[in-house]
Amino acid sequence: MDHRNVLHEQSVADNEAVDRWVHSTCNLCSVGCGTEIAVKDNQIIGIGGIDDHPINKGRLDPKAKYQWIPNNSKDRLYTPLIRNEQGDLEPASWDEAMDLIVRKSKEVLKEKGGDGVAIYSTGQGFLEDYYTIGKIGRAGMKTHLLDANTRLCTATTEWCLIESFGSDGVPASFDDMDEADTIMLFGHNIAETGSVLWDRILSRKKATGKPYLIVVDPRKTPTAREADLHLDLKPGTNLALLNAIQNELVKNDWVDHDFINNHTLKLNDLKEEINKWTIGKASKITGLPEEKIALAAEKLGKTDTLVSTTLQGAYQSSDATATCLAINNIHLMRGLIGKPGCGPLHMAGQPSSSGNRTVGGVGTYPGNRNPNNPKHIQEIAEHWNVREEDLEIGPNKGIIKQLEMMEKGQIEFFWNIHTNPLVSLPNQERVRKAMEKPFVVVQDPFLTATTEIADVVLPPAMWGEKEGTMENADRTINVLRKAVEPPNGVKTDFEILVDYARRMEFKDKDGNPLIGYSTPEEAFEEWKKVSAGRPCDMTGMTYERLEKENGLRWPCTADNPEGKTRLYEDHHFHTAVDYCQNYGKNPYTGRPLSREEYEATNPDGRALFNVTRFGGPTEKPREEFPFWLNTGRLIWHWHTRTKTGRMPEMEEKAPKAFVEINTEDAEKLSIKEGEKVRIVSPRGVVEVPAKIGDTMNKGEVFVPFHYGNFEGEENSNDMTMDEVDPLSHQPVLKHSSCRLEKI
Ligand SMILES: Nc1nc2c(c(=O)[nH]1)N[C@H]1C(S)=C(S)[C@@H](COP(=O)(O)OP(=O)(O)OC[C@H]3O[C@@H](n4cnc5c(=O)[nH]c(N)nc54)[C@H](O)[C@@H]3O)O[C@H]1N2
Ligand SMILES: Nc1nc2c(c(=O)[nH]1)N[C@H]1C(S)=C(S)[C@@H](COP(=O)(O)OP(=O)(O)OC[C@H]3O[C@@H](n4cnc5c(=O)[nH]c(N)nc54)[C@H](O)[C@@H]3O)O[C@H]1N2
Ligand SMILES: [Mo]
């Protein structure tokens, strides 16, 4: 299947009929394509790609073309709902719903303090929403329990960037992909999950033969099928492969000594770990032929320019952070960072997932600030005009930890914004039981699997109906203008948050309202000041410029108004003790390091090599469960399908879940194409039709995770496990075990 044939530029039937085109950005995936929304009579009637937008040059993903269809869906919610004594959700006014939320949160806050309340948000919202969540959460509710679905998505990016370079922020950008001789796509099925960027890569490859493409994925994905070198390693063995590659680079002296000597520290510690990683050893663990590993090492060792992307095959995997650190190590060994065509490009997934980290809505602190550095906390307190002791600073607790706190009755108020955890979290049986305990607010335009356990449902405005900014996977900030007025009865996420703060009477230390702004643009202006002097400095941006320039990358300042295409061009990293975002963690236990421990290394602007010790998957196939269970995405759908499930054109392409099986495995089990099979994991059972072919290696199966929101659907997450990476706390959604039964 060639996805290039399904890229659409525009979905408007009749250009003449359009009253106006409104500047926006696609809200599906992290590429951040510039779009224009076609409006007639306050109705969205289509979408087009912006031709001179540097990211997509007019291209659109197939789903994007129908992006506005769910807005007009008949089953949208137009009024808040409150669960009544009979247990049914019943329409209510905004005052009734907000009063109840305020009463309940005050009750819990009084009884338990900030540890009793949590906000679980998203990577699909606006910076202005996230910033407000961070401010309300830390300085208003005084909770540190702020997390988001980004925990399942790109939490690993944050940690691997902090540990290697001192702060969050991807070093390379999409522009570097256009110049790279070699691109390594690591656990990243970009053909299905970033189709526009893929088209950008393939168009160049067709015209020039470049880049050389290395794809690391156990499956023969559409991406892998185009690769020059496909490494279909055994699931969960990323780090075995990368350790051998790192060792080869050192052994063959394919390293940049000047760069290493001048700009890095700690290579010797790493060498001790990797010198035992022969190609033979890695071959046994990964199942890859020795020649393929040697070829990969040589290509990575000799290429003049290299961009490496990582995504869920790395992040939702065992050894997640260590895997990404190994990729950073490779770039540092070769000095392939901070120059054109070079750098690690740890991807985002959702359209604005990195943005939530940047502004501090997700357990991070605004402006990549270090919670363990009192100076940084003082800066936040000054910006917000609150006392330092009134800022709730606590350990970042991921959603899986929060589930445990719900089970124990510790979290009693849980506000779920723009995410559908009763489909998307692993080990659903546990999730449901845990989330039934607290008082749950769900902010969603539709009834979902999660609203089934909600006590209050708030209906928000959707994409196209609100204004704000998003941050894509390469640090580009785009502005989305409001194309149409939201339907009667709904409020934007931003308005809901600001209204909550007002009703809660959150104040600064002079008794003025904590949230002094009332429009997204005012919030952005305030945030800009908070970002000043930090890696993500946005002081050079305005909504007007963002629209005119079709997005700008941070840092963007008065001195550097065009923004930075790539970070670290001066090879000065963000590791100085008073600048860095964190003092780091012990790589095995996740214990936070102290300032003293960090200072003992004294990186002071140098990048750090990190030791990458292979652990491997904790749950492996065995007698009772002989197959690997892998889960992930299809080009046609977006996550839990609350949007694409309402686009008939996309539903038609992939209406039902299935399990992909290797032909030989299917023969052995006498399973026929399309026949329903039972998949049993240690946690749950799912029955879906079989799809047989050569995509999967023997002993491995794949189930798309898009299903389970709608009545009667099977959910892959009934089977997945909730173990997490020690540093990023991201769950290992890609690897668990299962067996197949013929029904
Ligand atoms: N069509 C579509 N596009 C999307 C999304 C969507 O829902 N639909 N969601 C967006 C979001 S939020 C995200 S996070 C991204 C995710 O984008 P991707 O990460 O590209 O998508 P996935 O399918 O989750 O996983 C990628 C690949 O990891 C492989 N993998 C599994 N185990 C391993 C392993 O041990 N090692 C390696 N190297 N690879 C392994 C899987 O076989 C799979 O092909 O997509 C974004 N784009
Ligand atoms: N097994 C398995 N599980 C996975 C993954 C996997 O690869 N395998 N991937 C994980 C990853 S990377 C991700 S990102 C998550 C995604 O998982 P989720 O975030 O749970 O999935 P979505 O369907 O994007 O949920 C977004 C919700 O927001 C609602 N919504 C839409 N627009 C708006 C709006 O403007 N405002 C508000 N308030 N709500 C809105 C939608 O109706 C929907 O219910 O899934 C994770 N789960
Ligand atoms: Mo994601």
From TrEMBL:
Annotated stretches, region: Disordered:
348-372
Q: Does the keyword 4Fe-4S apply?
A: yes
Q: Does the keyword Oxidoreductase apply?
A: yes
Q: Cofactors per UniProt?
A: [4Fe-4S] cluster; Mo-bis(molybdopterin guanine dinucleotide)
State the Gene3D superfamilies in the record.
2.40.40.20, 3.40.50.740, ADC-like domains (2.20.25.90), Dimethylsulfoxide Reductase, domain 2 (3.40.228.10)
Q: Which keywords, in A-to-Z order, does the entry hold?
A: 4Fe-4S, Iron, Iron-sulfur, Metal-binding, Molybdenum, Oxidoreductase
UniProt-listed Pfam families: Molybdop_Fe4S4, Molybdopterin, Molydop_binding
Q: Which residues form the 4Fe-4S Mo/W bis-MGD-type domain?
A: 19-75
Instruction: Specify the protein name.
Output: Anaerobic selenocysteine-containing dehydrogenase
Q: Which organism is this entry from? A: Gracilibacillus ureilyticus
The upper taxonomy is: Bacteria, Bacillati, Bacillota, Bacilli, Bacillales
